[in-house]
């Protein structure tokens, strides 16, 4: 790279927004700054300062005139030997020098852009330099795009990206609400329902002022704790749309979130019908009073309700802005109605109101109404069940979290303030109405007291009215009998009616908005794939129009049914179930002690949240026990469904955090207990390489480790360390994902090493955790050992020696076709790639044809451009046929079939166990575990052991006794008495021909030549070695003959692995033993335990 070293290379400019993380971009435009600076001093570098001179720090200035000082500053991209040396990055004729703290470095300072998710709506995501980029030596000619230079150095996105994005948002007119209009107003409207105006007075009459305040306090305790938990969860990270569903699903995971999200959305949809019917009933009552009925009360409710819900739908579909304006208007009406009631309590009562029980504030009335007077079988819990729905609605603001400017600030502030204000209003109304109105009144102005009448402590009697006949016959007025007490007390009655309209319509409108928003968020997460249709949003605010229509249809259906008294308890329980899970989410996240649980809202306690969850569950049964049971059944069914489907999402839930904590605690607990033989289980390291390249080896190992032992698929990357580490890191996730996708309960581990044996040695020593450490090494038989380089054979036999050195058992698996199917996978990947290209080509051609038919000349130009891009694809299409023909001719079908043989259910047959040497019992335990598996359950065990010819029966009885004590079922026992006789000549000749290329034949040469050959080829089999172990060689050949005779038809052979004594048996001779031992047989497992007991007959 060359630089134009003309005067004034460096620009000394201080941006207006300098800070301690300033990064200067140095321009190549030298002439433009030469005239601006006439100083001829040599260049100097200002020191980094962290003092008060923040505006002058981190600058580099150039004094022109002594340009030679810079000639050696950059030489082919090399940096000068200074503390502030720089790497040059040339890109598109501009040079960028990356500076942090006044020095050149690719290390980036902390920026929020690094921590955003991809596709974040709040701004672009930037990628910080990787550790590899910082750690490795920097290349001399690194090209950095101009648009990303700042990003690399400072963590910024493309300059102006965030501003541009925000500008686009502003232009599009996206509506976002603050905490008042978005949360406070909605929560207050939802909490202040019809119950405030037409049921609260009755509750005070039944329970009295004292218990009435306790009922309100208990309800507020539930909602208050839930509000605190909601605030904590909402401030533990950015909150998107979805309300309660989003909070629960991101805390407890998709299983809980998906189950509660569906019923919560449904509950809001049905709640629309409930509130609209409440509004319609009030209108019908007014029509009755004016004798203006349309049909009959039931059908009038249906007609008015249907018209109302259509109007509400129109307001919602018009956009969130219109809906928010309507909510504000309704809140104003509601506040005026409440104020109207309090004003009415101080306006002197007239005779008509007194006859109906209203006497303004009276201490006698307060005292009389303070205690309870339950009637008609009512009690504390039944009255509480009637009141509690009035306290719900605290999630109205959270449900539109996606439409809030700052959900983390708005949800806690708006929700908690709404709970406080509405609680004060409920308590104020309850106490005031209890202090002003008597429980029973006749409504007759002539029911005054007679002189000399004994009042018996009656407050009304003391105030001049005799309502004693209400004890014997029903009365129509008073707290106990008249639901319109607030209208009577208020200064202007019609305003209370307007308040009832406002309460019902606002709640209905809030539910009509909440249900589609929550449902859309649920569908976007694709937890229920059949509901994906409703995930689509429209317009600037991504409005869920499809969800609005669905909510409208559900509400209309329940309005037409007009029987909501039955469904109302279930809906209340649905809301309570949501509250319970929110509280439990807060507790669970705190209990899991995840470092990621850092809520900004600190006014919460995990045990208080747990108490809130239990309280919600208790209230569910108090309100209606059968509705609670139905709620739990539905939620449990949906939980099981989502768990079974296993949606492919990962939200870092507290469930995952607690699983980790539990696993860690259990692993630590295991280390405190000594191993016991009864709890032994094979814990295997399997040298599969990539798990998909040797599936048969993994399958047979998984067959005896699944649900009982540890299985680690291991791969060793051999070669240049940098390349190996890069390849290893890039494939870790993919290979573990393959195991999960194929439902193989195993881990994947990999190491980079200078040679294969060193890598395996590292795995043998370092794999596992605590007591969960491998005790068995499983490897495939090296089928190509006669053609392989000597180093590969040395490594292969060496890892067997290493395993024995570390007291780890060894299992060598051999199948006729071998295990490695990597070439088959490469062919399949190529075919898939070509098929994708073919489909893409067809789609492009189809698109071009459509445009040609409808787009005229413009479409013709587009077609020409697209065809130019894809003009080489017909050649690829032709190559498909070529590769397919190669596939037919060269594809090894037998290898593919062999790779899946252990996935299939094994036919009825036997597993032949040749337990020739006692290795602690591993040779017997592995086949026993196999027979417990569903795929191997039709295979019976046949046991073969060596013995003396003259004691066959005795040894058979002894072995049967041992197996019975081990409680291992077997089909038959065979005592082989002729193992140690010589094999026949043909078999021995095969063995000799096998080892002939590797023999030294030193006995046929003179001593000097023999010694020279030994030095040059120490790996060859000497005559002395062969003679010393001749009996062992005979045994291996003879065993193959016996295996051919007895076990040729077995489904699987498990055979004791011969051990090669270190320094005595050469690698090639040992491989020849394994070859001749397992030649021309069904699948064979050569097993050798670590000679420690793995079986016991003690209890």
From TrEMBL:
<dbReference type="InterPro" id="IPR004841">
    <property type="entry name" value="AA-permease/SLC12A_dom"/>
</dbReference>
<feature type="transmembrane region" description="Helical">
    <location>
        <begin position="259"/>
        <end position="280"/>
    </location>
</feature>
<dbReference type="Pfam" id="PF03522">
    <property type="entry name" value="SLC12"/>
</dbReference>
<dbReference type="GO" id="GO:0055064">
    <property type="term" value="P:chloride ion homeostasis"/>
</dbReference>
<keyword id="KW-1133">Transmembrane helix</keyword>
<dbReference type="Pfam" id="PF08403">
    <property type="entry name" value="AA_permease_N"/>
</dbReference>
<keyword id="KW-0633">Potassium transport</keyword>
<feature type="transmembrane region" description="Helical">
    <location>
        <begin position="177"/>
        <end position="198"/>
    </location>
</feature>
<feature type="transmembrane region" description="Helical">
    <location>
        <begin position="301"/>
        <end position="320"/>
    </location>
</feature>
<feature type="transmembrane region" description="Helical">
    <location>
        <begin position="210"/>
        <end position="239"/>
    </location>
</feature>
<feature type="transmembrane region" description="Helical">
    <location>
        <begin position="603"/>
        <end position="627"/>
    </location>
</feature>
<keyword id="KW-0406">Ion transport</keyword>
<keyword id="KW-0630">Potassium</keyword>
<keyword id="KW-0739">Sodium transport</keyword>
<dbReference type="GO" id="GO:1990573">
    <property type="term" value="P:potassium ion import across plasma membrane"/>
</dbReference>
<dbReference type="InterPro" id="IPR018491">
    <property type="entry name" value="SLC12_C"/>
</dbReference>
<feature type="domain" description="Amino acid permease N-terminal">
    <location>
        <begin position="90"/>
        <end position="157"/>
    </location>
</feature>
<feature type="domain" description="SLC12A transporter C-terminal">
    <location>
        <begin position="694"/>
        <end position="1099"/>
    </location>
</feature>
<dbReference type="Pfam" id="PF00324">
    <property type="entry name" value="AA_permease"/>
</dbReference>
<protein>
    <submittedName>
        <fullName>Solute carrier family 12 member 1</fullName>
    </submittedName>
</protein>
<feature type="transmembrane region" description="Helical">
    <location>
        <begin position="418"/>
        <end position="438"/>
    </location>
</feature>
<keyword id="KW-1003">Cell membrane</keyword>
<feature type="coiled-coil region">
    <location>
        <begin position="824"/>
        <end position="851"/>
    </location>
</feature>
<keyword id="KW-0769">Symport</keyword>
<feature type="region of interest" description="Disordered">
    <location>
        <begin position="31"/>
        <end position="52"/>
    </location>
</feature>
<dbReference type="GO" id="GO:0055075">
    <property type="term" value="P:potassium ion homeostasis"/>
</dbReference>
<keyword id="KW-0325">Glycoprotein</keyword>
<keyword id="KW-0472">Membrane</keyword>
<dbReference type="GO" id="GO:0006884">
    <property type="term" value="P:cell volume homeostasis"/>
</dbReference>
<feature type="domain" description="Amino acid permease/ SLC12A">
    <location>
        <begin position="182"/>
        <end position="685"/>
    </location>
</feature>
<dbReference type="InterPro" id="IPR002443">
    <property type="entry name" value="SLC12A1/SLC12A2"/>
</dbReference>
<keyword id="KW-0813">Transport</keyword>
<feature type="transmembrane region" description="Helical">
    <location>
        <begin position="326"/>
        <end position="347"/>
    </location>
</feature>
<keyword id="KW-0175">Coiled coil</keyword>
<dbReference type="InterPro" id="IPR013612">
    <property type="entry name" value="AA_permease_N"/>
</dbReference>
<feature type="transmembrane region" description="Helical">
    <location>
        <begin position="545"/>
        <end position="564"/>
    </location>
</feature>
<dbReference type="GO" id="GO:0008511">
    <property type="term" value="F:sodium:potassium:chloride symporter activity"/>
</dbReference>
<dbReference type="InterPro" id="IPR002445">
    <property type="entry name" value="Slc12a1"/>
</dbReference>
<keyword id="KW-0812">Transmembrane</keyword>
<dbReference type="GO" id="GO:0016324">
    <property type="term" value="C:apical plasma membrane"/>
</dbReference>
<keyword id="KW-0597">Phosphoprotein</keyword>
<feature type="transmembrane region" description="Helical">
    <location>
        <begin position="379"/>
        <end position="398"/>
    </location>
</feature>
